[in-house]
Amino acid sequence: MRRILLALLLAAAAAAPAARAMDFHRVGDILVMSGPVDGNDLVRLRDQLAQGERPRLVLLNDSPGGDLWIGYQIGNRIHEEGLPTAVSGKCESACGLIFLSGSQRFFSDGRPIAQTMVGLHGAHSVDTMQPLPELGPRMAYVIRTMTARKYPADLLQRTVYPRNAEDMVYAFHPGRYPATAKARGVVECLKQPDVSFKCDMLDGLDALSIGIITSADLLKLPEDVKSFLQQLETTTAGQ
Q1: Which of 37, 120, 127, 150 is at a distance of 20 to 30 A from 209, taking alpha carbons?
Q2: Is 238 a residue whose pLDDT tops 80?
Q3: Which of 15, 205, 221 is nearest to 115 (CA)?
Q4: Distance between CA atoms of 31 and 48, rounded to whole angstroms?
Q5: What is the pLDDT of residue 67?
Q6: Each residue of 90-146: pLDDT tens digit?
């Protein structure tokens, strides 16, 4: 199973969209945010929140992350507004921190459950791909606070102070695994000297128990939102 998980993670990484600004779309009363986090996204979020009624949910869809500082600011705004967050597809890095800012947090049925994940890792330089441990304390504070101190201290240490910039901790929906299983979807992927990755699912942990999500219920999205996500996926694949 763990080798299958690694294959899924690598496939998801290979399918990451080309670099572009984050897209913001209102579908009914849901705000859909997709793509990489960049320097103008806080302004885009403010513009969206200023238009009409406030959304009832922020849906983060297929984002590889991006600008850490902007991710913090977007997360702060979502937290101040008391908005819940949900994830569809892959939400990594700065996107994962934005997801944690939600007043309530869910996995959704916007994408197949095996393709939906939240990924967290330490800060690093985009130019040199070297870890930036000096940024670790703030990131640790954010993760620890937003998860109500449920995120294990030893795992938090490894998450924010990685040995390699590409090390990542993923959380999948616990419903993918039997309730009696020792490991239920928290996966630590560490880059090896031969540039391969060693991924292990951690015993005794799941996304709910470590505070990544606030409910194990799979959020059912409206059909118009699912239709929009399918259109978005088709458009992105064609770029």
Answers
A1: 37
A2: no
A3: 15
A4: 8
A5: 93
A6: 999 999 999 999 999 999 999 999 999 999 999 998 888 899 999 999 999 999 999
Average per-residue pLDDT for the chain: 90
The residue written with tokens 């705000």 in the block is: 31
Distances (CA, A) of 7 to 13, 16, 17, 61: 10, 15, 18, 21
The reported pLDDT for the residue numbered 60 is: 97
Q: Domains in the chain, please, with CATH?
A: 2-237 (3.90.226.10)
Q: What gap in Å lies between CA 100 and CA 78, rounded to an integer? A: 10
Name residue, tokens 């849906």: 59
Contacts 24+ apart (CB under 8 A), 68-71: 68/93, 68/94, 68/97, 68/123, 68/135, 70/37, 70/38, 70/39, 70/41, 70/42, 70/94, 71/37, 71/95, 71/97, 71/98
**What token pair was written down for 78?**
């979502």
Tokens coding 79 = 């937290």
- Pick from 114, 65, 59: which is nearest to 88 by CA? 59
